[in-house]
Specification:
By secondary structure, the chain is mainly alpha-helical. Helix content is 61%, strand content 9%. It contains eight helices and five strands; from the N terminus they run βαβββααααααβα. A hairpin with a 5-residue loop joins strand 3 (31-35) and strand 4 (41-46). Helix 2 runs antiparallel to helix 3, helix 2 (50-63) packs across helix 8 and helix 3 (67-92) crosses helix 7. The protein is globular, with a radius of gyration of 19 Å. The structure holds zinc ion (ZN).
């Protein structure tokens, strides 16, 4: 299972005439060194947040038949989404990032603590309780992750669909009000990565996520449904698979 992106140098030189997909393994940092068939070498930093990337990985896992891996990735995505919201709320309120990191050390190994922090902070920001995750989804996730239950394709797809609407329903509230804060945090992260990896001037920032993409949200959930997004990801996955076959021959 690989991430599909494209050569930015080809794009810059000839726009869509030379459009070429490149497949590469996912990594944790979101920094990718690419080389296309025209020998263009470039480095890209993925702008997407960890929860967006994990949601795509989980959905791709299901499309490729790996149901347990899909559930694990989607569950991780939801946890990172809670972290994302907490840090955005704190940034919005002017909390110094070094203080946030110090406090986060007490929460980072406990998803329950993070969920509690998210609920209280959301309550404080919006003066109402956040959307609650359905209890059957929590039970399903625990059965798969902790008891080794092997879910079917349709059970897994239903879980991903529920988690898609859980995240989207919260983003409908968070996105318009906190856009400046999360863009600021994203730019700081990208700057840190550019320094850490000593990335050259020709590096570009790229968006890749298909299922949940902050740059496109909030969406009209009546028109832009889970099924639409899943189908889009399936199309990208098929293109990537064909490209992989061509590269291997
Ligand atoms: Zn190229």
């Amino acid at each position: 299972m690989k991430m599909t992106t494209f050569c930015n140098v080809c794009m810059r030189e000839a726009r869509f005439k030379n459009f070429e997909f490149i497949s590469t393994d996912f990594n944790d940092e979101g920094v990718y060194k690419l080389i296309c068939s025209r020998n263009h070498q470039s480095t890209i930093i993925i702008q997407d947040e960890k929860f967006e990337v994990l949601f795509d990985i989980g959905s791709l896992a299901l499309l490729n038949g790996y149901t347990i891996q899909a559930v694990a990735s989607i569950a991780a995505s939801v946890e990172r989404f809670h972290e994302f919201c907490i840090k955005v709320f704190l940034e919005h309120n002017g909390t110094d990032s070094s203080e946030v990191e110090t406090a986060w050390k007490q929460l980072k190994n406990s998803s329950e603590r993070q969920l509690g922090a998210f609920h209280v902070m959301y309550l404080n920001e919006f003066k109402k309780a956040p959307t609650i995750m359905k209890q059957n989804c929590v039970a399903f996730r625990n059965k798969v992750i902790h008891k080794g239950y092997i879910p079917t394709y349709s059970e897994t797809k239903e879980y991903i669909k529920e988690m898609f609407y859980y995240i989207q329903s919260i983003l409908q509230e968070v996105n318009p009000r906190y856009q400046i804060s999360y863009v600021k945090l994203a730019l700081e992260r990208q700057q840190d990565l550019a320094e850490k990896f000593n990335i050259r001037y020709d590096s570009t920032i790229s968006m890749n996520s298909q299922m949940i993409c902050l740059a496109r949200e909030p969406i009209d959930l009546k028109k832009d449904t889970f099924e639409n997004r899943f189908e889009l990801l399936n199309t990208v996955n098929t293109i990537q698979y064909r490209h992989q076959l061509q590269s291997d021959t």
